[in-house]
Amino acid sequence: MTSLLKLNTVSRRFGSLQALTDISIDVAPGELRAVIGPNGAGKTTLFNLISGFFPPSSGEIVFDGQVISRVNPAELVNRGIIRTFQITEIFLSLSVYENLRIAAEVAMGVSHLPWAGRHLRARIDERVQELMDMVGIARKADRIAGELSHGDQRVVEIGIALSRHPKLLLLDEPTAGMGDEETQNMTALIRRLNKEQKITTLFVEHDMEIVFGIADRITVLDNGHMLAEGNAHEIANNPKVQAAYLGQAA
Ligand SMILES: Nc1ncnc2c1ncn2[C@@H]1O[C@H](COP(=O)(O)OP(=O)(O)O)[C@@H](O)[C@H]1O
Ligand SMILES: [Mg+2]
């Protein structure tokens, strides 16, 4: 198997704090991988390393056959590593359509072209429609983003991420702050994008039912260490995981 993403004994220190220790992970093309673990386990740090926000203190990250340990975030976006953040990153005063139009123009390299002709306008519009259909927000195209529910705002954000043609999508707690229905929608969307668009996805999620329900494989971090890795069945039956989570539940 050729992996799309490979981490070889990756560690990260912040001063005296060892946030991640010897993490080795292989993600196959097309995989939907969950990263779980208690608060402070190092999940966000892992995403920061993969997306180039800072380099590992030691170890190596390989993406698409190339070492990317010290490649900057903008270049990694060009290479297809796209993340969403905990904080919603959309223009609240603009409509859903306008948000996606700006994203599509940036991704197509045609932003700030006031002289854009009819042909280009049509291509941009087509792309925006496609993005709206992919995430299922087309019927809210004209709604002002700031007036959408939190769940719909996050859906728009996924649309913006898709405008960049991700090969690897990193979703850090995509269902944070959502109610049951929004959570279900977002979960279904993540699964659909993975299955239909074949987008390799890493996501952080706290709800174990969701994780077990959709992830192909699960990586469990605990206190900066890899506690376990496997499919839902293996993780659910792993004594170390059970101990960590039962210990936490109290
Ligand atoms: N930029 C940073 N500077 C210093 N410490 C950090 C930084 N980012 C994360 N940490 C520390 O690393 C540890 C792991 O944090 P984080 O990756 O955010 O965990 P998680 O996302 O699993 O909750 C925590 O102790 C956190 O305080
Ligand atoms: Mg986090």
Q: Keywords for this structure?
A:
single chain; alpha/beta; Rossmann fold; 2 domains; four-stranded antiparallel sheet; 9 helices; binds adenosine-5'-diphosphate
What is this structure's SSE topology?
Blueprint: E1 5-14, E2 17-27, E3 32-36, H1 43-50, E4 58-63, E5 66-67, H2 73-79, E6 81-84, H3 96-108, H4 118-135, H5 150-163, E7 168-172, H6 180-196, E8 200-204, H7 208-214, E9 217-222, E10 225-230, H8 232-236, H9 239-249
Parallel strand pairs: 3-8, 3-9, 6-7, 7-8
Antiparallel strand pairs: 1-2, 1-4, 4-5, 9-10
Helix pairs in contact: 3-4, 3-5, 4-5, 5-6
Bound molecules: adenosine-5'-diphosphate (ADP) and magnesium ion.
Structural class: alpha/beta
Note the main sheet: 6 strands, mixed
How do the strands of the widest beta sheet line up side by side? 6-7-8-3-9-10
Bound molecules: adenosine-5'-diphosphate, magnesium ion
What is the N-to-C succession of helices and strands?
EEEHEEHEHHHEHEHEEHH
Cα gyration radius (Å) = 19 Å
Helicity range of the residues? 40-55%
Counting DSSP E segments of at least 2 residues, the number of strands comes to 10
Q: How confident overall, as mean pLDDT?
A: 93
Q: Which architecture of the largest domain would the CATH scheme give at its second level?
A: 3-Layer(aba) Sandwich
Tell me the number of helical segments per DSSP (H or I, 4 or more residues long). Answer: 9
- The CATH first-level class of the largest domain comes to Alpha Beta
The fraction of residues assigned to DSSP E strands is 15-25%
Shape: globular
> How is the CATH topology of the largest domain named?
Rossmann fold
